[in-house]
Amino acid sequence: MLARGMQTNGKQFDLLPAATNMTQLAWSCQLELEAIKALENVCNTANPSRPNSGGKASIYVDKFQGVVSAEIFFAQNLREILSKVDTFVGFQFTRSGSVKINPIYRAEKGIKDYANVAWAATKNVGCSIVKCTTDDRYVSVCRYTPSGNIVGESIYKIGPYCSSNPGTTQSCDKNTGLWP
């Protein structure tokens, strides 16, 4: 949706600008294994470890609160990540409401996870989840490559979708606005 300019910015329900260069995310079993490893000992009440993001992860923790399955938890997690666009101030608007410049990542509070998902050059994702029964919570980690969230860099280039090839030899999918 974001690539084609159909993602709303949340509370104002304005459409965010389309991306010229956004790549499609593919599942990575290697990143899933890294996420599994990052979750080792996270539920150990005697010696808990916080998952190491390594600069390329989204970490999400939640109490059960009606969560009945990992699938529902991940759906709630994704909704939470997408809601962070409400706090994103990387877009600068003209008086007419059009965006002046590409959205720049500035490490604003609460936007890291959204930027991980929206980062145009990110191609791979792998996630894992653990259910901690001792304190009624789920913890999930998603890892991304190539790693984005580089302070001062553009999250994506604004313009007509599919108009700026990010270096692939394949064609952009006009239905999704994503490059392979």
* CATH level 4 superfamily of the domain at 26-90 and 102-145: CAP
The CATH class of the domain at 26-90 and 102-145, by name, is Alpha Beta
Strand sequence of the main sheet, in spatial order?
1-3-4-2
Radius of gyration: 17 Å
Secondary structure tally: strands: 4
Helix content: 10-25%
The CATH architecture term of the domain at 26-90 and 102-145 is 3-Layer(aba) Sandwich
Keywords:
180 residues, four-stranded mixed beta sheet, Pathogenesis-related Protein p14a, 15% strand, alpha+beta
Notes on the structure:
The protein is α+β, with helices and mostly antiparallel strands and 180 residues long. It has a domain at 26-90 and 102-145: CAP (Pathogenesis-related Protein p14a, 3-Layer(aba) Sandwich). The chain contains 3 helices and 4 strands. It has helices at residues 29-38, 70-83, 112-118; strands at 26-27, 57-63, 124-132, 137-145. It has a 4-stranded mixed β-sheet with strand order 1-3-4-2, sandwiched between helices. The chain is globular. The model has no long low-confidence stretch (mean pLDDT 78).
Helix-strand layout with pairing:
Elements: E1 26-27, H1 29-38, E2 57-63, H2 70-83, H3 112-118, E3 124-132, E4 137-145
Parallel strand pairs: 1-3
Antiparallel strand pairs: 2-4, 3-4
